[in-house]
Amino acid sequence: MEDKTLRNIQYIEEIVKKYDFLNIFKKPLEKIKENPDVNKLNELLRLICSIFEEKLIELKSNLQKENEKLQALTEEFSVEEYEKIKKEKENLQKELEKQTQEYETKYQDLLDRFQKLSIAYREIKTEYENYIYRTEKNFEKLKRESKERIISNIIPVIDSFEISLKSIKNTQNIEEVIKGVELIYAQLIEVLKNEGLEIIKSNTGDKFDPSIHEAIETEEIDEEEKDNLISQEYRPAYKLMDKVIRPASVKVFKVKKQSEV
To answer: Quick one: average pLDDT of 240-246?
Structure first.
């Protein structure tokens, strides 16, 4: 389709250059050449056909007027004068007929191209709409399957919580309760890691990185070498695939500002 679009653009360019009354389409054509678009090309060709049709009607009207003028001359001039003027009128008439025939042929060619391009555009549009429909349908299917997979993996964690909650009611051993919660936490983290989640821990002395850290508090210090280093982490950062979905909340060292003299 790209080759056909290019050929149509070249054809329109030749028509626009040849006929002065189509000069208004030079700028729109340049834009289409920069960014070929079948829809815009189809609309441009439709407008050119419309202007050509108007010009053709105008030529035919002029030809009719010249015929009428020639008929009227028989009553105003002598035979000799009439024959002289008739010859001039006939020459003009031949030129108009020739131009009319040229425009008629070109108009039919333009109309034929426009109709073919319109059919091609409708086919592309239908194919594109079907592609969008299939893509959306596949996306919804993938989204549903993804949710099902995640929930299916989390259900065992919920089972563990239920078992742990029942055990808590029947035990006084805090250490066993803590151990059970830690195991469930580890189980949940494992599920999330399998889905692409990464927990980014920040340690004291790490350099502050605005792409993964959020400074919610600062701590003034005198040592310049510690400036902009992390003093304390309040909560870690979470990264899914290549995107940070929650930055780490941290306290940052800041060198004390010198008092103005």
So the answer is: 91
